[in-house]
Design brief:
The protein is built from 11 helices and 13 strands. The protein is of the alpha/beta class and 359 residues long. The protein has 2 domains: 230 residues, 3-Layer(aba) Sandwich (Aspartate Aminotransferase, domain 2), CATH 3.40.640.10; 114 residues, Alpha-Beta Complex (Aspartate Aminotransferase, domain 1), CATH 3.90.1150. The longest helix is centred in the N-terminal third of the chain and has 22 residues.
Length: 359
Amino acid sequence: MQFIDLKAQYRELKASIDARIGQVLEHGQYIMGPEVAELEQKLAEYTGARHCITVASGTEALLISLLALGLKPGDEVITTPFTFVATAEVIVLLGATPVFVDIEPDTCNIDVSQIEAAITPRTRAIIPVSLYGQPADMDEINAIAAKHGLPVLEDGAQSFGAEYKGHKSCNLSTLGCTSFFPSKPLGCYGDGGAIFTSSDAFAQVCREIRLHGQSKRYVHTRIGVGGRMDTLQCAIVLAKLEQFAWEVEQRIAIGARYNRLMDEKGITRVQQRADRSSVFAQYTVCVEDRPAVQEKLKAAGIPTAVHYPVPLNEQPVYKDISLGGTPVASGIAKQVMSLPMHARLSAREQGQIVEVLTS
């Protein structure tokens, strides 16, 4: 059994993917070729944001966004400790301090009720993470941010395609970022990512930072990075985008089927709110004695993963440079376990997984 079946997806999309790659090989514009602008236009239309800026990775999307916000040493950024390290990494790389707010025990997203107490005169931004494919409580977060004059940067690396109250993830705040890492709901065959915003000013700054801070060729008006998404990867995402609506529908249906099975068996799972959707970048349950459960599933040929085993504020490199205690995240990290999840996972396979899990 596959944890994520990228090979099956490729077989279905082979003609389109190969044709798109072939077009790039023919025109030879491997950096900033026409597929880059085409993808940016289509992704902006999909989310409803005015602008999409493709970049080299989801991490680069976060880094460029924080550079665009003017983050400086001594600043603080409020975020969650229960996420991939990139969320905090970019804050520290710019000399700022991550301030970790605890998570909700049921969704594992940031606990909005604790955000305002974490704001100080040094707070520069709030970064909620749309964990496991489900947006956080963005209306409440945006309201708190507006009250204090702060921008909100949604880390939507896991949630592209999800909706919150009828609006697409990555178009829910000042800036939104996503990743096209191969295992994501919409992935390329290497690294890639994108920034979304409806601010013309932020879009222009992000585009300049992406190209080494250039306002025009060899005129550098700001500090930048080499942050471009290459043309071949954009071509692959364009091919996958043709089937993405179906992929999202399947993920939602398969996630709902998992939910029914888990609830019938009394298995604790990550919950989803009624006013939003999840694209189930991971399907995650909570178990006691996780190593033993993983070994039992492995013996049955069922792969698992842990997202995430250690909160970021307990990681060796972050524990002395971050702020905030997070007991809920600390406890959840010892229990979470992700199961096989992709758009081609059959009902039979899901039944087998749950049967072994509860045996």
